[in-house]
Amino acid sequence: MQVSFNINGTPQRVEVEEHTPLLWVIRDILDLKGTKFGCGKAACGACTIHVDGEAVRSCSFPVQFAEGKNITTIEGLGTGDALHPVQQAWIEEVVPQCGYCQPGFMMATAAMLEKIPNPTDEDIDNNIVNVCRCATYYRMRKAIHRAAEIKSANL
Amino acid sequence: MSQSETKEKKGFSRRKFLVRSAVGVGVLFGAGYLSRPLWRRSLAGFANSVDAFYSGDTETPPLWFEILADNTITLLSPKVEMGQGTFTSLAQMAADELEVDINQLKVVHAPTSSGNIDGFSTGGSTSVASLWVPLRELAATMREMLKNEAAKMLGTEVSALTLQNGVISGNGKSLTYGEIAKDVESWEIPDVPPLKDRSAYKYIGQPVPRVDLRDKVIGAPIFGMDAQMPDMLYGSVVRPHLIGATFVSADTSAAENMPGVVKVVVEEDFVGVVAESYQQAENAKQAIKVTWETEKNWQLADIEAMVEVGKGDPVTIQKAGSPGSILSEADVITAEYRSPIGAHAQIEPNGAVAFVDSDRATVMISTQVVSITRKEVADRLGLDVEQVDIRPTYLGGGFGRRLHTPNAVQVALLSRAVGKPVKCFFNRKEEFQNDTFRPPTHNVLKARMDENGLIQAMEHNISSGDVMFGSALIPGIAGTLLGADVGAWRGGMIQYGKIPNYQAISWRVKLPFATSWWRSLGLLANTFAIESFMDELAIKAGKDPVQFRLDQIQDDEAGHRLREVIRAAADKAGWRDGVHNGRAMGFAASTDANTPCAHVVEVSVEGDQIKVHKVTCAIDPGLAVNPDQVRAQCEGSIIMGQSAVLYEKMTVEDGELRPVIYGPYRMALMRDAPKEIDVVILENADAPGAVGEPPMGPIGAAIANAVFRLTNKRLREMPLTL
Question: Which Pfam families does the entry mention (chain A) (predicted)?
Answer without folding.
Answer: Fer2, Fer2_2
